[in-house]
Design goal:
alpha/beta, about 775 residues, binds iron/sulfur cluster, Rossmann fold, binds flavin mononucleotide
Length: about 775
């Protein structure tokens, strides 16, 4: 560099320094603004990965808006795009949204339905069945094409070993047709490591994954599971029969927000599997077809109607156990109208002390006595207006429907008995299964007359039923009542479809009523067309168990054939009967005795039964002799002795009843033994035949039903109908003609009487040991 150049360079540097000194503040400020601008621009353009840790802080705003859209506004979730990275956060870290809010009704009417059938198979038996089934299902879809306007898409069969679980079990897949899905599963059980374990593990993890909604499969229309197993190796469910199908059912229930479309079915690959599987597929297809047509699964399935389930899978309030809710356990609210356990039939008769909101005992509302008419002297005589017994706008109607009754016409009622629900869930049948072979899940409890002529102190329905001595109401025709009670019964059974633990096999059987207990409330023989009503039952081969209160001798005498005829014997003498039954008839004792005489005459035509309900302090003490005399008078075929059952809030508290009036089972047994002794002493040929300790019930039977030293208390129902068809309702035959096979060993006196097919459970569904105490504790 020469001297001139160097001089020039020195000048420009000094110029720059000069400029810097003159404007440095503004230069620094400009640079700062430029840098901040650039930083902001780059930050905005940056594409960020979703945050897996602390999403609540970072994604709060986003999840609040997005989640609402995914789960409420758009019911059917769009399948996740498969990615190798972590699963997308759908529900934030807030847990259990689906348990807090039940799945809401989703309308699928505008969307086509697609059934996906998943299966696994190791020794290929299930695989073969699944392949055959998918063909059947395809044919079914084709046949229904006309009725469903093509909204029923071709079903698809999927092998669990060949699919990516994430495609189907994190959310339902997306389809071009915008299909709504039904998932069916056919799964054999394996107690060795198999694909089933991986699959079940996946479902469990999905449910527990805090980043995923606990019920990500709630957009499904529904699901159902069928299991195959082997009873030779795994004889019952306790020992592992079909255990993985049951587990799958449980996880799917959680993941779908309880959208069990049909109860879990189970088949033994070595015996009944074809029958059980056909039963299940028929039921499932009916439900799916209904969903395609109506857009919902029907009542009883959450998300589509009236959910019957409780919050916990296994903790239903109504669980097949007698619940003794005493006064102290109440919350102060009057629960008269909402309790599900109010069945006279299954619980014997109930006591309900009634409290108001402050916990003070209320007087029972007075039952309306329709027999009280204004006296002719006071008012000008008027032609009586014929009223409806239970008019739709009456308080009686409201009270009864709140208690779970369906009122048919104006004077009949039907209610699903808690034993029916219990048997559907494999938790035991009522005592009539042990004593007479009645399947509780096939039994309808009904009455053609809600009115009665007694006001028994232990009758829980006190104050809600009309009473009267004669029929003064509009009369509904028997066929209308018959159709109405059947329809309502089936409706209630169908509502049980989604309830956890309901057995597919029992559910299918329950859709055919085989028995009718005419003992719900009121007095069935009060209904003027009771014989016609019975004929309708028998025509459909439904057996009839009719209970009457021994106050209507004329109607009793005119009664035609019934399968089993009861009279309630609530006391052994006149005074006691007046106190306990509070009859409306002045000549109640004479009526009572006449009924016993009629029963005596009928004993070779009908299976006659005395039903004794023991209430400690009222009709037990020192009354064995009195009861023995009544038995001597009527000579019934059977004597059922039951302890009264206490159900909590009775209006009869004003009669001074409490928990202390409920006898222990050993007290019932002691009474029965004393009664049996008295009968022997009188030379009457009776013996203690059978028991159902669970219901505090013991059966004394006439030795007519003891053949070659064996009790035959069960009924041959088939034979009963044959006799009826051959000889007519007035025909000549005896109860022995339709006596069933020997009473099973487990039901005999001394063996407890609990159905060995079922499991005894407590209110939470936990298994219980059956400990029976028949003797007074030391
Ligand atoms: C190793 C083995 C373990 C099994 N474990 C059970 C079990 O725990 N419970 C059950 O009910 N059946 C069990 N089974 C019976 C199978 O579930 C039954 O045979 C089924 O039909 C097999 O179906 P697949 O041929 O489709 O694999 C088992 C069978 C095998 C061979
Ligand atoms: S006979 Fe029928 S209605 Fe009566 S308790 Fe049994 S199942 Fe219920």
């Amino acid at each position: 560099m020469d001297a001139g150049n160097r001089l020039q360079l020195g000048t420009s540097v000094s110029d720059l320094v000069e400029v810097w000194h003159a404007h440095r503040t503004s230069i620094i400020l400009c640079a700062l603004v430029l840098l901040i601008g650039l930083r902001t621009l780059l930050h905005k353009a940056e594409e960020r990965e979703p945050l897996a840790v602390l999403p609540k802080i970072y994604n709060q705003e986003k999840s609040e808006t997005n989640e609402k859209t995914a789960h409420e506004a758009q019911p059917v979730a769009v399948a996740e795009k498969k990615s190798a990275g972590p699963r997308r956060i759908k529900g934030g870290v807030t847990r259990k949204p689906s348990q807090e809010k039940k799945a809401t009704a989703v309308d699928y009417t505008d969307r086509p339905t697609k059934v996906l059938v998943f299966f696994s198979s190791i020794t290929t038996k299930t695989e073969k069945i699944a392949h055959e089934y998918i063909k059947t299902l395809e044919t079914f879809v084709d046949q229904r094409a006309g009725e469903t306007q093509g909204k029923f898409l071709k079903p698809e069969l999927l092998d669990l070993t060949e699919i990516d679980f994430e495609d189907y079990f994190v959310s339902p897949p997306k389809s071009t047709e915008n299909a709504a899905y039904v998932y069916l599963f056919i799964l054999p059980s394996y107690n060795i490591d198999s694909i089933n374990d991986t699959f079940l593990q996946h479902l469990q993890e999905t449910h527990h994954d805090f980043r995923i909604d606990t019920a990500p499969l709630s957009p499904l229309i529904g699901y159902s599971v069928f299991g195959f197993g082997d009873k030779e190796g795994w004889p019952n469910e306790d020992e592992g029969f079909c255990f993985q199908a049951k587990e799958l059912d449980k996880w799917m229930s959680k993941l779908t927000g309880r959208k069990r479309a049909y109860p879990v079915g189970m088949g033994d690959m070595k015996s009944d599997h074809t029958e059980r599987f056909t039963e299940w597929t028929t039921g499932v297809q009916d439900v799916i077809f209904q969903a395609v047509q109506t857009g919902f699964l029907g009542e009883g399935v959450p998300g589509s109607g009236d959910a019957v389930e409780s919050d916990e899978e296994d903790a239903e309030a109504d669980d097949g156990e007698v619940v003794f809710d005493d006064e102290e356990s109440g919350d102060g609210k009057s629960s008269d109208d909402s309790r599900p356990l109010d069945d006279v039939e299954d619980l014997g008769k109930m006591i309900r002390p009634n409290k108001d909101g402050n916990g003070t005992i209320r007087k029972a509302p007075l039952a309306v006595d329709f027999t009280t008419y204004p006296s002719a002297g006071k008012k000008k005589a008027q032609a009586p207006i014929i009223k409806e017994m239970v008019a739709k706008n009456s308080p009686t109607y409201t009270a009864l429907t709140k208690q779970g009754y369906s009122i048919v016409g104006s004077h009949s009622g039907v209610k699903i008995c808690r034993w029916t629900k219990s048997a559907l869930r494999g938790r035991g049948s009522c005592y009539k299964y042990s004593l007479y072979g009645i399947n509780s899940h096939q039994c309808m409890e009904t009455t053609p007359s809600l009115s009665c002529s007694n006001k028994c102190v232990f009758c829980w329905r006190h104050g809600t039923n009309p009473v009267g001595t004669t029929w003064r109401w509009v009369v509904d025709p028997p066929d209308m009542i018959f159709d109405g009670v059947k329809e309502n019964h089936y409706k209630k059974i169908k509502m049980m479809r989604g309830v956890p633990g309901v057995r597919a096999e029992r559910y299918a059987e329950a859709l055919r009523i085989r028995h009718c207990a005419l003992s719900l409330v009121g007095e069935p023989i009060f209904y003027p067309y009771i014989n016609e009503f019975l004929a309708l039952l028998h025509n459909e081969r439904i057996s009839s168990f009719l209970v009457c209160n021994a106050q209507h001798p004329d109607q009793l005498a005119a009664l035609k054939a019934v399968t089993q005829l009861y009279v309630s014997i609530d006391a052994s003498n006149k005074d006691s009967l007046r106190k306990i039954d509070r009859p409306l008839h002045r000549d109640f004792w004479e009526r009572f005795l006449r009924c016993l005489d009629i029963l005596r005459e009928k004993r070779f035509r009908h299976r006659t039964v005395y039903r004794l309900t023991l209430v400690k302090g009222f009709n037990v003490e020192d009354e064995a002799e009195g009861y023995a005399q009544l038995i001597e008078r009527g000579l019934p075929c059977f004597v059922e002795v039951k302890g009264v059952t206490y159900c909590g809030t009775s209006t009869s508290s004003n009669a001074g009843l409490s928990m202390s009036n409920v006898p222990f089972y050993w007290e019932v047994c002691e009474f029965v033994k004393a009664l049996d002794k008295r009968l022997q002493e009188k030379g009457l040929d009776y013996g203690i035949a059978a028991e159902h300790a669970h219901s505090c019930c013991v059966l004394l039977a006439s030795k007519r039903f003891n053949v070659n030293g064996k009790w035959h208390t069960h009924i041959d129902y088939q034979r009963f109908f044959e006799l009826l068809e051959e000889r007519g309702a007035d025909g000549d035959w005896t109860p022995e003609d339709y006596m069933g096979p020997p009473t099973p060993e487990w039901a005999l006196w001394g063996n407890g009487g609990f159905d060995p097919r079922d499991e005894r459970v407590d209110r939470k569904g936990r298994k219980m040991e059956a400990i029976v105490t028949r003797e007074a504790p030391e």
